Amino acid sequence: MSVKLQPAEAIPLSLYVHTPWCVKKCPYCDFNSHAVTEQGIPQQEYIDALVRDLEFHLPEVWGRRLSSVFIGGGTPSLFAPEAIAELITAIRTRLPCVAGMEVTLEANPGTVEADSFEGFRQAGVNRLSVGVQSFDDQCLGKLGRIHSADEAVAAVSRALDAGFASVNLDLMFGLPGQSMSAALADLEQALALAPGHLSLYQLTIEPNTPFMHRPPEKLPADDVLAEMQDVLAGKLESAGLERYEVSAYASGSLQCRHNRNYWEFGDYLGIGAGAHSKLSNAETMYRFSKPRSPGQYLAEAGQLSAVRGHRRLEEADLRFEFMLNALRLRDGFSIGLFEGHTRLSYSAISESVGEAVERGLLVEHDGRIQATETGYRFLSDTLLLFS
Questions:
Q1: With 50 as the cut, is the pLDDT of residue 4 above it?
Q2: Structural domain count, the chain
Q3: Which residue segment(s) compose the domain that 20 sits in?
């Protein structure tokens, strides 16, 4: 299969920054996060390491404009606003950025003081993502969260009052012992706060987590979960939050640009402990990651030894990974996007697309491909055609 050598500059570039510390590791979490020790977080040392890491990779992205920054974790809101300001300034002075660049910071309700949100906004953050998960104290306790329902309401209210251009609220369903009425009560409280964006996730039991080894009791049955998702999704859309991705709902123009770049198979550079990257150059596309251990990352950041698992993406990788991401989008993707962001001819997937169309899983119209209602509901089965 011939590859279309389009310039890397034609593919949007995002930056992901990982902060690996939390006050406490939640039993369901499989992210690279570590509980804060008695020594606390080495904030300045970590910011310096992030800057070294970024500088090391500048030759790979030289001349490209940054479209978004996402500071995730872990719990980035454990860092002082001054540290976040130093980081954002370092990024902006080393990479050209698009006008009005989206800069997101994740925050947990139990880790912010009343004036922190204003400090983060002044630091250059213009989008805040608040990890509420539930407004029910019993559910929060079963999830191992450190905040209360009242703190969650107060945190979202403060975030909205601080003047951010966009605020996302993370909410889970399918929690231990959760009924349909309890899940609806959670969502109604979320909607009462009027966020412009809401991410709705089903609790899943991931490998290598405490919940995998000691599963919580009274998880809702599969048929209850399916009904719960349908009812919650319908209520969100009735409230004016459009579902544009499997778990993401937004009002008007408030879709998350950073996450949309992932789903459209754009490029992203990841810095920080355990961060992953996918980049393009004139010849190829490739992936790599960073050491997961915060101590190891601090020791190696900015050096070649910190680049782990460097591998070229072959045609089969490009085909499947593109579909894995792009079919999550409600409006699907254009053939031009596929060819531009994978540098493959559409013929690489056309036969599989045709089979999926015959099975009623996808539709193809005016150069766009998207999942049908059936294909969207059974997305894993749809993706098998491209593996």
A1: no
A2: 2
A3: 8-261
